[in-house]
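Input structure tokens:
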């Protein structure tokens, strides 16, 4: 089988876990058909953190060679930020530190959020899969090593459907490949003077591929897609 599989990843499982499950289902199907399990090549085209949900594009068979092509596509997310605190990982999975009880007005929030639209320099989270001297940054951070992340140029094409009820701030954001929504949350909090971290994230679109066309992450629906 060669092609793609659109998955709606739930919260609580890693991207590697999604790939492993799909590969396992495919291998079982091949065994039942008396075929070699070596055919069951599965890869992903961009990770989602365990705390995030939504669209993952898996590549199967010969399409694994095209993974980078799909990973460079723009992405759309539904994000929720929590103001008034910061996180060691820039999301709810890190150590949360209260920072401020200041409550910005809706007008102030709108002005700050809109200031990030366009081409910006963004510093990725230290707890990320970016390699530093051949090692993943998050692995170095977990060992207590000092990690310095270099800023990168990314594009925020739009931020819309903003909802604000302190301390929660929600919006839909369309970004270029390589953009970290955790970093965007952190930077919005810094500019507001309140601190902020990403408390929920759902990816709804990758390029022209949409979440509505994805299959739920359960054995029965995945089996149907792979047989």
């Amino acid at each position: 089988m060669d092609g793609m599989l659109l998955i709606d990843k739930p919260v609580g499982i890693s991207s590697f876990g999604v790939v492993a499950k799909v590969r396992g289902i495919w291998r079982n199907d091949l065994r039942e058909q008396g075929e070699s399990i070596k055919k069951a090549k599965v890869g992903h085209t961009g990770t989602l953190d365990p705390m995030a949900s939504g669209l993952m594009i898996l590549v199967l068979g010969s399409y694994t060679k095209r993974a980078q092509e799909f990973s460079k596509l723009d992405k759309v997310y539904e994000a929720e930020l929590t103001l008034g605190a910061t996180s060691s990982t820039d999301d709810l999975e890190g150590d949360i530190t209260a920072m401020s009880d200041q409550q910005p007005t809706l007008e102030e929030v709108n002005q700050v959020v809109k200031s990030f639209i366009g081409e910006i320099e963004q510093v990725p989270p230290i707890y990320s899969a970016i390699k530093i001297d051949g090692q993943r940054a998050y692995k170095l951070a977990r060992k207590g090593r000092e990690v310095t992340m270099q800023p990168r140029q990314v594009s925020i094409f739009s931020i819309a459907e903003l909802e604000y009820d302190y301390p929660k701030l929600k919006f839909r954001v369309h970004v270029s490949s390589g953009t970290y929504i955790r970093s965007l949350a952190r930077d919005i909090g810094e500019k507001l003077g309140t601190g902020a971290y990403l408390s929920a994230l759902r990816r709804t679109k990758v390029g022209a591929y949409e979440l509505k066309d994805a299959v739920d992450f359960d054995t029965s629906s995945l089996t149907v897609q792979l047989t």
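The CA atoms of residues 51 and 176 lie 21 Å apart. The chain has six helices and 14 strands.
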